[in-house]
Amino acid sequence: MNKQIKAIFAKEFYGYFRSISAYFIMGLYIALSLLCCFVFGNFFEIDNQSMISFFKYQPDILAALIPGITMHLWTDEYRSGTIEFILTQPIKYKDIVIGKYLAAAAFSLIMLSMIIPLVVVLWLYNDINLSAIISALVSCVLIVLSFCALGELVSSISSRPVIAYLGSLFIIWSITMFSPDVLSENTTLSGLSFRENYKNLINGKIELSSIIYYLSMAGAGLWATVAIISNRNKV
């Protein structure tokens, strides 16, 4: 990581902790995760050796909260008028995009790490499938990386945080709900299904194709963001 990326990362990352909304998002994540796990997930009524009741709802929870983390990445620059100053500095656009992205991803992963105490408690007092849980945690990390990239992409388009949030929410939920069965009965397209890839991972099947699926989504989002920012400076 070069100095430019580190500087952008530090500015954005520590900026989260100067805002009360960041702590609200963290608290909301814990509340929604526990609510979905123990109430809607019927935690005490089914076999939860792999914490399936918990991980079942994680894509939906992260889809609702991560746009709130990423919506200010670029909208604040537009509203404050600092976007022109940033883009005229001797720093590559991709470094700015990556720095902001890493800050959002790091904050999101800290939020995600708050579930670790629950895993530890279950591990101490119950017979759990630790390998399946680790696989599910890997899937959540991949989801965070892909959602943050998509959220930054939408944030780079709009100057209004609310529009950036709703736009990110719409795009992310559209992807999570997309099923190739809608377009074709060809089962070979199942690899394009968000839910299918996530299902494989939370069931302990860490496949290279599923990892590539999520990382490709993140890469495409970052590439598109760099293209948009570069094009804006040419206008």
Description:
With 235 residues, the protein is mainly alpha-helical. The chain has one domain (3-234). Helices cover 74% and strands 0% of the residues. The protein has 12 helices and no strands. It has helices spanning 3-16, 20-40, 52-55, 58-70, 72-80, 83-87, 93-112, 116-125, 130-155, 161-177, 194-202, 208-234. The longest helix has 27 residues, at 208-234. The chain is elongated and about 55 Å long.
Features:
235 residues; mainly alpha; 0% strand; elongated
Describe the largest sheet: none
**Helical element count?**
12
Shape: elongated
Number of domains: 1
**Percent helix range:** over 70%
Structural category is mainly alpha
Q: Uncertain segments of ≥5 residues (pLDDT<50)?
A: none
State the end-to-end CA separation.
Answer: 30 Å
- State the order of secondary-structure elements, H for helix, E for strand: HHHHHHHHHHHH
Summarize the topology.
Blueprint: H1 3-16, H2 20-40, H3 52-55, H4 58-70, H5 72-80, H6 83-87, H7 93-112, H8 116-125, H9 130-155, H10 161-177, H11 194-202, H12 208-234
Summarize the structure.
With 235 residues, the chain is an all-alpha fold.
